[in-house]
Design goal:
The chain is an all-beta fold and about 160 residues long. The protein has no helices and 9 strands. A hairpin with an 8-residue loop joins β5 and β6.
């Protein structure tokens, strides 16, 4: 992983000692190469599939009630050693934490995806921006869509 763009800064890192995540599924998209992957997912993008593994399938109960879901994934093909990056679409440099780049010390990707349908343990969604085969970390209702019911008002 020595592809450094001009003005990027790399730091030495040791082999990752990850947080022992449990990958709960796998994401299937049309993209096999980062250069083909969209920079940001779009709600009108192609349909993608999220395969949830056992024993996590029962955790999908009720997710069909949401139009959007937050997808958290492990960007397993991303480098982890850049602290300053020069995005390909810009002449400027930015600190890693000022970008949504997949290149991060802990390459966790997040995206709000449109839930199209569910077929057993497979979710069909639109709006993803990750490579085919990306490991799934978690799914959550989109924070903007999730509104808890208001408590009942006391009677007067």
């Amino acid at each position: 992983m020595s592809d450094i763009r001009p003005h990027e800064i790399m730091v030495p890192t040791s082999a990752p000692d990850d947080a022992r995540l449990h990958f709960i599924g796998r994401i299937h998209t049309p993209w096999n190469d980062r250069k083909d992957c969209p920079r940001q997912g779009k709600q009108d993008g192609p349909e993608c599939r999220i395969q949830v593994f056992e024993p996590w399938v029962p955790a999908l109960k009720g997710i069909e009630e949401f139009d959007q879901i937050e997808v958290l994934c492990w960007l397993d093909q991303a480098r982890r050693d850049l602290v300053v990056q020069n995005p390909g679409h810009s002449d400027r440099t930015f600190g890693t934490f000022a970008l949504r780049s997949p290149v991060r010390p802990n390459p966790i990707g997040t995206v709000a995806a449109k839930l199209v349908s569910i077929d057993g343990a497979t979710l069909v969604v639109r709006g993803l921006d990750c490579l085919d085969g990306t490991p799934l970390i978690d799914l959550k209702p989109d924070r903007c869509s999730f509104t808890p019911k208001a408590p009942p008002k006391p009677s007067s």
